[in-house]
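User: For a reading group we're discussing how well predicted structures match intuition. Take Ribulose-phosphate 3-epimerase. Before you show the prediction, I'll give you the sequence so everyone sees exactly what went in.
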Amino acid sequence: MKNTLIAPSVLAADFANLQRDVEMINESEADWFHIDIMDGVFVPNISFGMPVLRDITKHAKKTIDVHLMIIDPDRYIKEFASLGANILTVHYEACNHLHRTLQAIKAEGMKAGVALNPQTNVDLLEDVINDIDLVCVMSVNPGFGGQSFIENTYSKVKKLKDLIQKNGASTLIEIDGGVTNKNAAALANAGADVLVAGSYVFKASNQIETIKGLKAIANS
Ligand code: DX5
Ligand code: ZN
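Assistant: Thanks. Here is the predicted 3D structure of Ribulose-phosphate 3-epimerase, as structure tokens, for the group to look at:
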């Protein structure tokens, strides 16, 4: 029996009604809160920062999965731990010393994640796979919600799953970008453990039912 988790991306929420949207996720069948932090340098967009995250974690009752799209993320590891992040994901492309960064995240009591841009080969993670709790496979180029899913993601997920199994690791595979009811089942079948969904959830008129439906499809 599959147990694919759903992580709505707060980037697509209505920031003028943020508490309402956080409560919606609390009440839904969603498993995690996915929080996108962008610095306008690593990606060509700026999202939101620490004060907003602090207010989200005040109300959120589920795992806080923070996706850092920032350069030199080591500078902020302690701060994100103190703000209540449970999983802290850094980009492979933004770290000079990934092994050290992963240890620093775990030393703060968080799970350590690594995100891969669409052009980054999963084989580059082989030597650190046993140190990684979660790999976030970007299925769009990071920086914006609402983009269309890159089809090459399926083969990437299969390759990553093989790498994880070959090394006896327990790393989770998360898919981020363009997830909908159209690709959720195929992604779960390819080996995805966690599906991030932003616009698909927040553009829906009934968000609670949309999350429920997505979870059912992903676990069918
Ligand atoms: C993109 C972000 C995603 C984004 C997903 O850079 O990392 O988490 O919010 O949004 P959708 O589901 O709309 O593609
Ligand atoms: Zn994200």
